[in-house]
Structures are given as C-alpha cells and as structure tokens.
Amino acid sequence: MDDKVNYPLVGAFVLLLGALLVAGVLWLAAGLGGRQAMDAYQAVIEESVAGLNVDAPVKYMGVDVGKVARIEIDPLNSEQVRLHFLVKRGTPIKQDSVAVLKAQGLTGIAYIEISGGSAGSPPLLAGADGVAPTIPFKPSLSARLENVLSNVLGNVGRVSDNLNAVLGADNQAALKSSLADIATLARTLVGQQAAISAGIADAAKTAQLTARAGEQLGPTLARIASSAQAVERMAEVAAKASTRAGDAADAAATSVQQVGNETLPDLARLMAELNQLSASLRHLSEQTAVNPSSLLLGNPAPTPGPGESPP
Question: Is the pTM of this model over 0.70?
Fold first, then answer.
C-alpha cells in the first residue's frame, strides 16, 4: 500500500477551498444573491456623532432599511457633520421626513432613525443634478437634554450671581438693621397691647354707635326727601305763577303801548291849546290891571305921534 501523500494536490485543494470560502463570504457580504438596489441620501447634523460609525444601521420607523455609507465634516461649514446613507429603493421617504440620531438600548450603539412623514407629502427624490437628496435632521434627545441642562445651569448661575449681589455686605447690614427695627417694633406692640385692645374696643363701640345713628338717620332722610318733594311742588307752582305774571306783564305792556300810540297825540294838541288860552288870559289880566275900563270901552286909541293928526 502506497502511503505517500500528494502534497501538490493537497495544496491545490486547500487553496481552492480557501478561494471558495472567501468568495462565499464576499458573496454573502455584498448580497450578490438577490441584491436589492439602494438609493443615496444625505443629512447635515449640527451635533456630535460620537458612537456613530460607517455601516451603522439606518432605520425607517424602527425597520432596518439601509446603512450609513460615509461620515465627513461638511466642507461648507466646519461646525456641521454631513452623513451619507444608502437606503433600500422603495422606502417611502417623504419630503417632510426627518432623521434623528438615536442610541440603541444599553449598549449605546448609535444609529439613524427616519420618520415616516405625512401621508399626503410627496416623496423625496434626487434633483436633476443627480446630487443625493437631503433629509432634514432634528436634534437628538441627548442634544436637547444638553441644551436644556445648559440653559438651566446658565439660569442657576445667573440666580446665584444675583443672590450674591443681593446678599452683599451693604445689603446684609441693611437687612440686619431692618430685622432689629422689626424686633423693636414687635416689643413696642407687646408693651402697648393693653392700649391696642382698648382702642379696638372703642372702635367696636364707635361702630355700634354709627350703626344706631344710621338706623335713626333713615327716618330723618325720609322726612328730608318728603320735604324736598314738597319744595319741588312749590317750585313748580311758583314757576306756573311766574309764567302767568309774565303773560299779564306782556299784556299790560301791549296796552300801555296802544294807549301811548292813540292818546298822546290828542293830549299834545290839548296842551298846546291850553298854553294859548293861558297866554290870552294872562294878557287880559295884565291889560285889566293897567286899564280896568278897557273891559267895557275896549282899548283906547293910540296917542298920535309927532307930526300925526288925531283921528
């Protein structure tokens, strides 16, 4: 029996088996059997991506739909990180879909979660230039908590600074002085407790007297109101009387005016005639006083002047 081993044949067999094993691994890794087409997407994130690695899973509402293809600093803004995804073709990524960085379980392995978006939103497609469409990215829970804690710590710091400013040496001295004054006032009030009690009792008596006076004041006010009504009625009567007096005065003025228009001219003529009669009587009286016989003989003939013959 020949026990010699054909080493070249064994080596060739081992190499062939190794090649087949490597090819199988590559085939399984690349998904050559029934490989599904992938679409490229990208997102820009403004927070740390610590824990996120290349080939990290990309999930759509919790379902694995792809992987992270590349992680790089955004060349347009050094404070941003640009993520490139490969997502299975046919995944319903909408224009209002949002990506967020999450951590898986207790292990802390980071992955990308994409929300479904609204039913009526159109799908997110690549533009005419062929650049991968950008999925909007919202801050992760850890980033939001960090911002909240930062704000809280900032507010606590400001409150602490304000308290330090309020509780400065000058304010502490003023507070001590105010507390001492309050203590003095409290001791004074304790010493005047009897007087305060008496004052409260007097105030109660005053309130009772005021209540009684109010009860007695009610009828008086009623009588005053009745008197006011009577005065009001008298004022109404006086107003009516004044109105009638005014009407009478207007009528009297009209009558006086009518008398003046009709009687005064006749009265003026009568006075003129009386003046003439009075003048005639005065002349007759003077003539009688000078020559009484003139009442019977008339006026004597006038004495002829120089160079005149008697009649």
Answer: no
